[in-house]
Amino acid sequence: MIRALLFFLALLAVAACSPGAADPPTPTPIPTATSAGITSDQEAAQLLDDLVGADRTAVRRAYNRILLAGDQRYIAAFIELMRINMIGVGTPLNFDESVRALEALSGQSFGGDWFDWIEWYGGTDLAPPPGFTGWKGRLLGRIDPGFAEFLSDDLPGEIRVEEIVWGGVRVDGIPALDNAEMIPAVQADYLLSEEPVFGISINGDSRAYPLRILDWHEMANDVVGGVPVSLAYCTLCGAGIGFRGEIEDGRTFTFGSSGFLYRSNKLMYDRQTRTLWNQLTGQPVLGELAGSGIRLDLVPVVVTTWADWQAQHPDTVVLSLETGYARTYEPGAAYGDYFSYYDTMFPVWRRSDLLAAKDRVYALQIEGNPVAYPVDLLVEEIVANHQVGEIPLVLVATRGGILVNGNSLRVGEVRYDAGAEVRAYARAEYVFSPGGDPGSLQDQYGEDWQITEEALLGPEGARLERMNGHLAYWFGWYTFFPQTEVYGLTP
With CB atoms counted within 10 Å of each terminal CB, which end of the chain scores lower, N or C? Predict the structure, then answer.
């Protein structure tokens, strides 16, 4: 299956760094065990530890005890053991034994298909046994001890730890760029005019972050126009989001990549408290800050071509290729095969067929109401006047879609959709149509308005503020916002 191949390719980069797989253990006689239910939290947690311990007799006793009790809480544990064996980290229980336990406890027949087990489990209301979070942290700590710091039983959490999966790299294995070198546009002779960049402009400071570079780093901590900014890019869910690093109480956060995913979405972490954050929502989900009510504010970011960004911001600076890392900074090199493939690389259990999984949408939350705008439809309409709740909006996509011709390190030449230059504004009582050029709109009174990063600027100083959203793959948005409105497709 292609998804299995993609998953395998995602692990190749770290396979050489992972501990070698142990030979499958020779089965030992299973000691006698009672079929009574596991009612003690202490016993439940001890059984988890016994499953991965060095004492083979204790391993077999725990395995038998769980199966005789029919305790479905341990389904989560056997999924973890199945996966850890898949990636070459040996445990006393081999892959086949984990599969047999899963089928016996669940009544399902997914065999060795890890995708199917994860997606089935996500749709259940099962919960793991006591001590599972710390146990999972210690287990994944065999790949990188840093994982155990993120997964501890004494940390508050807002998500199901069972759905956290290893993404194939160690902590900061995808290294963030921190205040990376910027160069004037005239010096950026490595860039093609048609290739995509993330554009951010704050207080007159305009910066471009080429996707050919961000594909390899997925995080840029920077200061733009005096504002601490983290550009968090989840390549798997197609979302590059600009967050303001400073929160209301004056604290400033910078972020790195944890190596974990949640429903194929990047879990980033802040370096100040080592809390895990949902990249799509800007909220802390596991660790010291989870449940605190903190949510990072968005800053304006747009995906556009290098030529169009320069035309709009002739004084822009752009990332230098001298990042301090040795990478193949070419379009499509890192993920071009994934971008051009129709499905996900990792399991996602909550899906909708209203759109194709990796159709591009422009996503916003307006006063708590999530809404997704299919990018193909926006490009077709150019200007979309819409209303979400009581808030009238205008969505602008005046420069068409962005297609990339790239070269994947894994499969060679690829062609994929990078989205489009989309911005949203609060339109008040105005109704807009395309203006005389891509940088302007016209209202119902025939007046011209200029499109800027902060606002629409109209006659006599009129100003309509920008509403910050971002591009995403449909599956990435829907999995966290299943109640979303879809422009043009839902009432």
Answer: C
What is the DSSP annotation of 415-466? EEEEEE--EEEE-TT--EEE-SSTTEEEETTS-EEEE-SSEEE-GGG-EEEB
Spatial separation of the C-alpha atoms in residues 227 and 222, rounded to whole Å: 8
CA distance 490 to 484: 9
Tell me the C-alpha distance between 51 and 171, whole Å.
Answer: 26
For residues 287 and 161, what is the distance between their CA atoms, to the nearest angstrom? Answer: 12
What's 252's DSSP letter?
Answer: B
21-35: pLDDT as tens digits = 333 333 334 344 455
Residue 63 contacts residue 51 (beta carbons within 8 Å): yes
List the one residue out of 487, 466, 365, 379 whose CA is nearest residue 424: 466
CB under 8 Å to 21, separation ≥6 — which residues? 85, 88, 89, 90
CA distance 272 to 7: 32
Helices (H) and strands (E) in the chain, counts: 13, 29
Radius of gyration of the chain (CA): 24
- Cα distance between residue 367 and residue 384, in whole Å: 19
| Tens-digit pLDDT profile for residues 271-280 | 999 999 999 9
- Which residues touch 123 (CB under 8 Å, ≥6 apart)? 349, 350
Tokens (6 digits) for 233: 């890019």
- Asked whether the predicted pLDDT for residue 461 surpasses 80, the reply is yes
Inter-axis angle of helices 95-106 and 56-69, to 10 degrees?
20
